[in-house]
Amino acid sequence: MPLVAALDAVPGLRSVLGLFEGVCTGAADGYGRMAGKPALTLLHLGPGFANGIANLHNARRARTPIVNLIGDHATWHLAADAPLHSDIESLAAPVSSWLRRGDRAGDLGALVAEAIAAAAAPPGRIATLIVAHDAQLGQASAAAAPREIQPAPPASEKAIRAAAVALRRRRPTALFLGGEALGRRGLLAAARVAAASGCRLVCETSPARLERGAGLPAVARFPYFPEQGLAALAPFEALVLAGAQAPVAFFGYPGQPSRLIPPGCETSTLATADKDVPGALEALAEALAAPAAGETIKEQRPSRPAGALTPESLGAAIAAAQPDGAIIVDEGNTSSAAYFALAAGAPRHTYLALTGGAIGQGLPCAAGAAIASPGRRVIALQADGSGMYTLQALWTQAREGLDVTTVICANRSYRILGVEMARAGMKDLGPQARGLMSLSDPALDWVKLAGGMGVPGARVETAEALARELERAVAEPGPHLIEAAMAHG
Amino acid sequence: MPLVAALDAVPGLRSVLGLFEGVCTGAADGYGRMAGKPALTLLHLGPGFANGIANLHNARRARTPIVNLIGDHATWHLAADAPLHSDIESLAAPVSSWLRRGDRAGDLGALVAEAIAAAAAPPGRIATLIVAHDAQLGQASAAAAPREIQPAPPASEKAIRAAAVALRRRRPTALFLGGEALGRRGLLAAARVAAASGCRLVCETSPARLERGAGLPAVARFPYFPEQGLAALAPFEALVLAGAQAPVAFFGYPGQPSRLIPPGCETSTLATADKDVPGALEALAEALAAPAAGETIKEQRPSRPAGALTPESLGAAIAAAQPDGAIIVDEGNTSSAAYFALAAGAPRHTYLALTGGAIGQGLPCAAGAAIASPGRRVIALQADGSGMYTLQALWTQAREGLDVTTVICANRSYRILGVEMARAGMKDLGPQARGLMSLSDPALDWVKLAGGMGVPGARVETAEALARELERAVAEPGPHLIEAAMAHG
After folding, report:
1. pLDDT per residue as tens digits for the range B159-202
2. Which superfamily is assigned to A311-485 in CATH?
3. Mutate to test the interface with A, among B69, B126, B436 (most CBs of A within 10 A)
4. Which candidate from A417, A430, A453 shows the least CB-CB separation from B444?
5. First vs last C-alpha separation in chain A
6. What ipTM does this complex have?
7. Whether residue A223 has a cis bond before it, omega within 30° of 0
8. CB contact under 8 A, A2 and B420
């Protein structure tokens, strides 16, 4: 309460209410990815923090800068083991790179400055400060001076020289891009490297933030399933990592490896994510005497699709309608699988993926991205099962008047579970198992759900209708929701 | 997936889908409180478990038996640090009294039997088993024999004698009841003790499960705020604890104590919650040569209220309409504060409170209580702000056709925060702080939200309309939702 009451004491703070902590942390993730600086979450004790953990997990994987302030009991009240008391440190440690407790008012200024610096230092991390109630009530010392944020250090000269030597051999080579390599500067440098060396550009399966579209180079996305990943890298004799970790399987499947680099493919690292990755790519381009510009994509959109709503027609409808400068938040899972390739030639846009696999990230992330990016249209491709995790985010979108168009990909099932069951050869499931994978009976009515939170909505059952509703929604300010009824459930 | 696929392998299992893990754990809490035996939750990796922590926190405070199975990566895949990997033990420890990892298929039978026994042993606790994917895929050994559950041991003879001596002195004494003391057997024994000694019966502020109504003794509820609690105990020279811990303040307020026992009030313990508390109360009644029955309440309901919806008229409407054998799940917070006293003479019913203060418990708990109690009507008194935390529970109520009547107490604010602000003397809040406490702009439409999940609903703005809708709802099978528009926001 003292922290809430203090929000008006300093001009320039903007408070945004989420009706569930997972909305707050997911929005902080979206904000941090787009703004490149931390949002602050204000959370209440262990259970309030716990509600935000899943989206902090995603943010940690995205290397998003976030500062969490957790209000705790007064120091003198902890021993009472009051009902809301719990072991906050144990809950916070798995998602916090920096974790401290502020028990005295006089320490808070310096601790908050330290938390902000810890979060904002490249490549970005999560800093959590637990603030005791008596410390909140006390008199803070003078505001601490902001800590200087050091830029990311350069990659080693040796690594750059080694990468240049490897690429000059002109073996079939993949330049595997992640983190800051996926910004405009990194991509344009990577395109120059590709022009000089003939290497192929590949990016992480689930990028935290990828700039793409017309005017930027073509980048293949590393596939999701391990056998597909191994096949994608099979043509290559060398793999050079730039801001990305060596690819591993999302899940471990019997008989398939964790590490997805084919035998005989030599792997080296140009720059890890904590280094100046765009600078390393530029230095590599220089070392290769690359041309001033590599190949980039010309604008080419799919035509407006027609017929039933499939992953292909849904992807085409989005790619055809997305305005220049759109921000695409993709938690469409199986339903949006075709979109990425179809949008390669769409006007310049930013693509935000589910980095940590913890579902329920899309709607909050879209809210945070919109807050960070006034004037840009956010389009959230949202699977229905995942969307139900944090549907409360729609209310925040309405309250803040955010320019978010949500497309609910309504297949009324946890389709990915069916895919995994089939992969594992588990067929002829019984009614108890089947019941856990179906979202029908009763069917969710997303137009009503959105309307209940102040977001206007429409349900569409064809690709034509989706295209029409999309064109209308992206042209009008504020949030809208379109429930896209996927064919075949 | 292998655990899901196996659900049909053994007859008699019933799977219930929650669209968010907080629904699953809250429903397991409601089930365990009513059934007295553990429900099993099936959760996915660290983030899936994390989504269920807040309601496990409540269940831990309620001493509800629950077994959590958390599916983890294959043992050989952990080192890859795949996107969904996290420190599950660190997340699970704060809410788990028993926490183990099952890495080999051959161990699972014995581990599950141990987990069930750990959870079910009186007074009930949470057992969490993390099961690696390769262990799930392997061949389990023969089913382990169920472990024998030992009943709660008796309280010490010495403690019973000491309590009898204290009560015979006939000083003003409060018998402070919690846990199993609040079941029918414990309460009837406590009434005999009161008849013999003149002591007053008081119960915990937030009982996990309290039997009450006509035919049971009057029990005062210990108040929420510390100054009220101290005042309530001020007349007493002695306090005897039976299944309850000594009362502490919910939050620590400057100038007020943590421990809420007035100076000079002698405190003793008849039986801690892990002992046979009803048996101890019966033994105490015998030691006092108490009559065979104490005083109990006669049925007396408030009359149907009229006028604006206030905590008083809302409480009267519920108490007037609740059918015999109702289960009342109370997360109405400030809006339901008057209900408890008004329902003292309602027909026999069961009252379930928010034990751990982690909001978002009511709707899931109501679902679990209904699953455990076919043929009984569940009435959930649900604050709107708290209800939004886990509104997905309405879908489970619809799918399972549960006899739950939800009354949303719609004051469109986090009213308790305003109360706390006023108590702390924080007035003249600015717009940033005020914005975090108001749920208006846009107003939530709970009838649409419920309809979107298959639950029929109605909005009422007067006490007469609430009474009418309640009478209709409790007479029809299946779930209903009534949005009660509280006067004065």
Report:
1. 999 999 999 999 999 999 999 999 999 999 999 999 999 999 99
2. Thiamin diphosphate (ThDP)-binding fold, Pyr/PP domains (3.40.50.970)
3. B436
4. A453
5. 46
6. 0.98
7. no
8. no
